[in-house]
Design goal:
The protein is α/β, with parallel strands linked by helices. The protein is built from 39 helices and 17 strands. α20 packs across α22. About 1% of the residues have low confidence.
């Protein structure tokens, strides 16, 4: 609950136009007077718009005191240089939603409307604010009743009072009441939440042309938006706004008659309905709101076309799940509510059935999660909020599905009392082939492409799929994401997807659709792997990442439902590079291991991909022994499959993991390099050189450097900036391990200039490490912070704890106890993935431990390390952010 004082200068635009310099000075003086009055009375200015102030107070008394003080101060000032300056003010109190220092909701709307009706020098007070403030009025202050006043877009007229006090003008002209033109707009039992941008856009479209159609899926809020926009247009019509609900009609021939009935025209003369309608409308200037046109679309289009052709002063605002298709039609496609608007709607509707319910910092994210799962569909949110009367928010979140979305008011259309009935309405309007496509699309997890839709629907002709998707999108049953270029992405809103899945289950074709889905993503994963292996395009990662949930769905079906582990193996092998690049290492390893449980039943090529993918994933997890074992098996499988390229990669991976501790490493590396050169594949040679450089010890850095130089040069000639950056990062790591931190820094900086965001995780760690070894704290601290932020976003199991270890080393010079807890967490996470510190990391760790031992007793260090080891990732992140 907050009290509000809104102010603005009357006629300021004209003053600016005639005397800009003087007005600048006047506005500064005005602002100072108003701000001082607000501050003295414990108010807070939360927004200024031009010369308007919006302030909040704890109570009405403070708002009244500020208004009186401001009007007195303004009245005593000299404004002759701008021809006088008059400020109107309004006060109201009510429940609001406060976000990021701003206020939203009906209370704010009401005080703004009240302000617009006042005169310069006048202070208006709403009825509820007067009721609250009257018992606490100071001596000499009064509230004069001005009667009832209708406010624009506000359902009920407002009781209005004027503040009287010494030093304030007492007499004014009658209030600027808005005379409501004739209309039959239905009274709304609840407030209109959000959508102010949409309202303004619709009003602009109506001013620009005579026909606007609001298009959107059922329940998204088309009718409420139409009513809000129509109410806003009342003042712009000579003979009002007339609402026609076409939902009850089943006979298209009755459309003209329904419009005439809404206009209260006697139809007893027996004249043809359309002729009578046109004759009645021709001399009139009004706005027709035709609601729910989709089931009568052809007839409505014909009637509207006749009206627009013959009635030049009539405008039409229609709502439909698809466009009318009439010449000159302007469309406004209504999307889902934004997160903040959805939460506001849930909060208001929930409070209506459970007055004690409030959205606060403790439950805001839970409410937002519910709204997101309902895809911001207004009706679905309202139905879910109504459940708060009988179930808790947690229970609602756990049990959220179509069956929960019931219980709409009995005075609504039956199809608006449950979400299922609303979708039924749309589903029954589809042709049989459209229904089949709509149901099949339910098997997708998240979005999908035209190609994958064609694979699942199996229509045979891709253009038939295009036509089907276009029709569903036109009927607002499918969301099209036009931002994805060069190809489009599609998705079903979640309530629609759940409904479609139930229909698919009822039809007994779910298993067929899921099998096609898995087969489709087997093919997509295979192509993605081949592209990654040969020459991935710059959009390779984001393109495949968009289907991550579909790959997961295909894997889960193959292993857990469809009893098709071979399909699961194909998807797992094909997506291993994707899980690697997304740092989803454990998940990727898990899928590969499940697939390899049936290794004997798989082709050598599939086994090779799975083993090689496992090796890469294990390597990035720091599990060297498992990575080496998987690389050896990959080499055997590639040899069996006769895949020379794959064998070369696997051998270089074996050499890499054998490292400089094995006499076999150099021989295997030489074999891999010979094969790479024989195959005359420059990219394969570059990656082989990068891996094989690690067969040289730190004392042989000159030989390793030669490999890196050739590798980087090859990647540069290929124009592969991302792979050049990764090679430079590996080179910087090798130089650092060899005791050349300054050289490593120079190489790592070059890598940072080339790397994409996902490629910078490792390089930032190298930089932070080298700066620490060089004792360059000024550079080390920002580098370590950046390294941690990047590693945290990617949830990298090694980079994140290493970055925390660097932060701990830096913090150990200032706060040993905080540093010890950070170090304890880092050690525990690295132990969990069997990662051992090497090279410069050991130097940093030694410095850290020396600082801890120098500042704290041994038993305290041990206790703090143990405490940090128990932290969650969230606790570690919060503490690391303080360094």
């Amino acid at each position: 609950m907050a009290a509000f004082l809104f102010t603005d200068i009357v006629g300021s635009t004209a003053r600016w136009e005639t005397n800009r310099v003087a007005m600048q000075d006047a506005l500064r003086r005005h602002d100072a007077i108003v701000r001082e009055a607000i501050d003295v009375h414990r108010g807070r200015v939360f927004k200024t718009i031009g010369d308007a102030f919006c302030a909040s107070f704890a109570g009405v008394g403070d708002a009244l005191g500020a208004a009186i003080a401001a009007q007195r101060g303004l009245g005593e000032a000299d404004w002759r240089d701008v021809g006088g300056l008059r400020v109107r003010m309004a006060i109201h109190i009510g429940e609001t939603d406060e976000r990021d220092g701003d206020y939203f909701g009906p209370a704010v709307n009401r005080v703004a409307r009240l302000l617009s009706c006042g005169h310069g020098g006048q202070v208006l007070v709403s009825g509820v604010a007067a009721d609250v403030g009257s018992p606490h009025l100071l001596p000499g202050v009064g509230l004069r009743s001005l009667g009832m006043l209708p406010l624009k877009d506000i359902r009920d007229p407002e009781r209005v009072f004027q503040v009287t006090a010494a030093g304030l003008q007492s007499e004014f002209k009658p209030l600027r009441a808005i005379e409501t033109p004739p209309n039959n707009l239905p009274r709304q039992a609840s407030s209109f939440v959000g959508r102010q941008t949409d309202v303004a856009r619709v009003e602009d479209l109506l001013h620009a042309g005579p026909l606007v159609t609001l298009v959107g899926t059922g329940g998204v809020g088309k009718t409420r938006l139409a009513l809000a926009a129509a109410a806003g247009m009342l003042a712009d019509t000579r003979e009002g706004v007339w609402f026609v609900d076409l939902a009850p009609l089943s006979d298209p021939a009755l459309v003209p008659s329904a419009i005439l009935s809404a206009l209260d025209v006697d139809q007893a003369s027996g004249a043809p309905d359309i002729a009578m309608l046109v004759a009645h409308l021709k001399p009139r200037g009004l706005l027709l709101v035709l609601d729910n046109c989709e089931h009568l679309i052809a007839r409505v289009a014909a009637v509207v076309s006749e009206i627009l052709a013959n009635c030049p002063q009539v405008s039409v605002l229609a709502t439909s799940r698809e466009a009318l298709g009439v010449t000159g039609e302007r469309l406004h496609r209504l999307s889902a509510l934004a997160d903040a608007e959805a939460v506001e709607l849930f909060a208001e509707r929930a409070a209506a059935v459970s007055p004690s319910f409030r959205v606060n910092e403790n439950n805001r994210e839970a409410v937002a999660s519910v709204c997101r799962r309902l895809d911001g569909i207004a009706l679905a949110i309202e139905l879910a909020a109504a459940r708060i009367r009988t179930v808790s928010l947690d229970d609602l979140s756990r049990r959220l599905h179509l069956r929960a979305l019931t219980g709409g008011p009995r005075d609504r259309q039956p199809r608006q009392q449950t979400m299922r009935a609303l979708i039924d309405w749309s589903y029954e309007l589809l042709e049989p082939r459209e229904r089949g496509l709509f149901c099949d699309l339910a098997v997708f997890a998240g979005g999908f492409s035209l190609e994958s839709a064609a694979g699942v629907w199996n229509a045979g002709d891709e253009w038939e799929v295009v036509d089907g998707l276009t029709s569903l999108a036109d009927k607002s049953l499918l969301v099209v994401d036009a931002s994805d270029e060069p190809s489009r992405r599609y998705r079903l809103l979640e309530p629609l997807r759940e409904y479609a899945r139930e229909r698919l289950d009822e039809g007994g074709t779910t298993a067929v659709a899921l099998r096609r889905h898995a087969a489709t993503f087997c093919a997509i994963a295979d192509r993605g792997y081949v592209e990654w292996d040969t020459a991935p395009q710059p959009d390779w990662l984001p393109r495949l990442e968009r289907d991550l949930d579909n790959f997961r769905a295909g894997l889960e079906w193959a292993f857990d439902v469809g009893n098709d582990p071979r399909a699961g193996a194909q998807i797992a092998g094909g997506t291993a590079p994707l899980f690697l690049r997304l740092s989803l290492l454990r998940e990727g390893i898990g899928w590969c291991e499940r697939a390899l449980e049936i290794a004997d039943d798989l082709t050598a090529a599939t086994r090779a991909r799975l083993y090689y993918g496992s090796s890469m994933l294990y390597h990035n997890q720091g599990a060297n022994a498992q990575a080496l074992a998987a690389a050896r098996r990959a080499a055997d499988a590639y040899l069996e499959a006769g895949d020379e390229r794959g064998l070369t990669r696997a051998l270089s991976q074996v050499a890499h993991h054998l490292g400089n501790d094995s006499s076999d490493a150099k021989a295997i590396a030489e074999r891999a390099l010979r094969q790479a050169r024989d195959l005359e594949d420059r990219r394969l040679l570059a990656t082989t050189l990068q891996r094989c450089a690690f067969v040289y010890s730190p004392g042989e850095i000159a030989q390793a450097r030669g490999y890196f130089e050739e590798c980087v040069a090859l990647f540069r000639t290929l124009g592969r900036d991302d792979e050049t950056a990764r090679a430079l990062g590996a080179w910087a790591d090798a130089e650092s391990t060899a005791g050349n931190p300054a050289a490593a820094v120079a190489i790592a900086r070059e890598a940072m200039d080339l790397a994409a965001d996902d490629g910078k995780v490792f390089v930032t760690n190298v930089l932070a490490c080298c700066y620490l070894v060089l004792d360059d704290r000024a550079s080390a601290l920002p580098a370590a912070r950046e390294a941690f932020q990047m590693a945290e976003r990617s949830r990298h199991p090694i980079a994140a704890p290493c970055a925390i270890l660097y932060l701990a080393a830096l913090e150990s010079e200032l706060d040993a106890r905080a540093a010890a807890r950070l170090a304890g967490y880092a050690y525990a996470r690295l132990r969990a993935v069997d990662w051992s510190l090497v090279g410069p990391d050991l130097v940093i760790d030694a410095t850290l431990r020396a600082n801890l031992d120098g500042a704290l007793a041994a038993d305290e260090v041990a206790a703090l390390l143990a405490a940090g080891a128990q932290w969650t990732e969230e606790e570690a992140a919060a503490n690391a952010a303080r360094v």
